[in-house]
Specification:
2 copies of one chain form a homodimer. Chain A has 317 residues and is an alpha/beta fold. Chain A is 36% helix and 21% strand. Chain A has 2 domains: 118 residues, NAD(P)-binding Rossmann-like Domain (Rossmann fold, 3-Layer(aba) Sandwich); 172 residues, Dihydrodipicolinate Reductase, domain 2, CATH 3.30.360.10. Chain A contains 11 helices and 11 strands. In chain A, helix 3 runs parallel beside helix 4 and helix 6 packs across helix 7. In chain A, 50% of the residues are buried. The model of chain A has no long low-confidence stretch (mean pLDDT 92). Chains A and B meet through helix 5, strand 10 and helix 11 of A and helix 5, strand 10 and helix 11 of B. Strand 10 of chain A pairs antiparallel with strand 10 of chain B, so a sheet runs across the interface.
Chain lengths: 317, 317
């Protein structure tokens, strides 16, 4: 491993069943979070999903003086500000590149790379599962149910893909991007969503005749003068030839618009263990390079008006 | 300005002619670098271009305990390793997002966002001027000379665009990316280049019949097992519909391939004052957020074989 990194503990509910695979190594398998917290590990990686108990464990890890890397979009969307404040106070880091966009480094792009601009809009495909389902329907003309079966067979969908299709997953990710890009505290549950679960082959025919296809789009545009955020997640007609129409399978893509930089496009693997692992490892490497780095907690405001806009894109993208 | 940033000095050969524009402000205009070095400024921004005296000034600024932000690809490509080592020893930072890709945050993407993967290949459009010229020839069928005149009129080309067309500019940027992605010390002058200055409308006809168009491509692929870097900059036929064929005007685009993450695409404004300003300001913000951040100097090796490959892409991109 680079930088002398060492994996010391694996905390897993079913550690006793799984540990044989790595039994020969010096890794401690445990079913006790307290054993991890009491260890001398510098970094805790959290990939369990769901708000609790994950948020509690992250809080405990930071309180124990450890930095934390998480892939958990729900925790970051709902508890991120408080946890980042705790991390800063502890002189530790909470990093979450894996929580949005898989391997495509959009958290760094929005939070750091474009910090010198005033970001005005983010339009993105943020859910790899739904994108795999919709692009499969487009390519084969099959029903949504058949496309879900196919995505599941390829490891791109969970047994129950509703949080993906309904937009709940993308809304959490969009909430994180709104905090990074606009400094807004957006409750993921307040983001208007329309489910992709009811999209039919006939909808695709209709979109095709209109010169496009259908993707689940996450849209956020902030009018600073009017303090108004136009935000939604919905299946949307996107123009043929656009970056979004060309995004197939479990890929993610985003167009970030800045007042000065114009449009920055970023795309890449949005789902899958490898993509998540790359993002997590990149965050671990960042911590290893500079253990005392300051990751300032964002100063978020709740003083804005949230609106939707009939779930259509103002212009062809 | 965010984070209480304040512009204190402007060092310019013709300060006396230019200073009236900002005479009312509290900015000190000077023709003396020593006045800047002796000031209490925390960060020095260098945008003069050329290796010397820029490298000397950066060295002096770091030695004086200041962090440095530069847009100067030649300095970073040719003196970057030594200057980054000096910065690290001084406990200061040398940041250079603006040196490659304009506003598109490729330095962070390669150096940090994908640090958890093993990057195997970078294929990119890295010179906005040449891209504006070639995409203009494609769109209008005009000669290269006419396209250069047009690019100049739009502010996308200097009086003498040879370093752009010949690939010298892109080679310096590619050298920087090879250091970040592969840990290789690549002399920009050793990168094989073929000029775009001799591309004709007939070449575009030929490319069109072959199902593509022409762009100046910067290509670097590292075979770690064989320690062999295949690297070049040249006008190249790219497939119609590819990200590169759709990159028009002064845009830049890159496909970064990782052993685990697959292909990450990033695209955006590659030339122009606004794009450069966004990248520079983002670096200044990073320094302001964490003045003691450690930006480790890359450990580079010269033990590799450099080869070219007839300037063609191994696969349609």
């Amino acid at each position: 491993m680079p930088l002398g990194l060492e994996l010391t503990h694996i905390f897993d509910r079913r550690a006793h069943e799984k540990s044989e695979a790595l039994a020969a190594s010096r890794i401690t398998w445990t079913t006790s979070i307290d054993e991890v917290l009491a260890s001398d590990a510098d970094v805790v990686v959290e990939t369990v999903g769901g708000v609790e108990p994950a948020a509690d464990w992250i809080r405990a890890a930071l309180a124990a003086g450890k930095s934390v890397v998480t892939a958990n979009k729900q925790v970051v969307a709902r508890r991120g500000a408080a946890l980042l404040t705790l991390a800063e106070r502890q002189g530790r880091q909470l990093r979450f590149e894996a929580a949005v966009g898989g391997a495509m480094p959009i958290v760094r792009a929005v939070g750091e790379g474009l910090a010198g601009d005033r970001i005005t809009r983010i339009v993105a495909i943020l859910n790899g599962t739904t994108n795999a389902v919709l692009s499969r329907m487009e390519a084969t003309g099959c029903s949504l149910d058949d496309a879900v079966v196919d995505a599941r067979a390829r490891g791109w969908a969970e047994a129950d893909p509703r949080v993906d299709l309904d937009g709940v997953d993308a809304a959490a990710k969009l909430s994180i991007l709104c905090a990074l890009a606009f400094g807004l505290r957006v409750d993921p549950d307040a983001i208007p969503t329309r489910t992709a679960a009811s999209v039919t082959p006939a909808d695709f025919d209709h979109a095709r005749r209109a010169g496009g296809t259908i993707r689940q789009i996450a849209h956020a545009e902030y009018d600073r003068t009017a303090s108004t955020l136009t935000v939604w997640v919905a299946p949307t007609v996107v123009a043929r030839g656009s970056i979004f129409s060309r995004t197939a399978g479990p890929q993610n893509a985003a167009i970030i618009s800045g007042a000065h930089c114009g449009e920055i496009t970023i795309a890449g693997a949005g789902a899958g263990g490898d993509a998540t692992a790359v993002a997590i490892l990149s965050d671990i490497v960042a911590i290893a390079r500079d253990r005392a780095a300051i990751v300032p907690a964002p100063v978020l405001t709740s003083h804005f008006r949230l609106q939707t806009s009939d779930f259509v894109l103002a212009e062809a993208v």
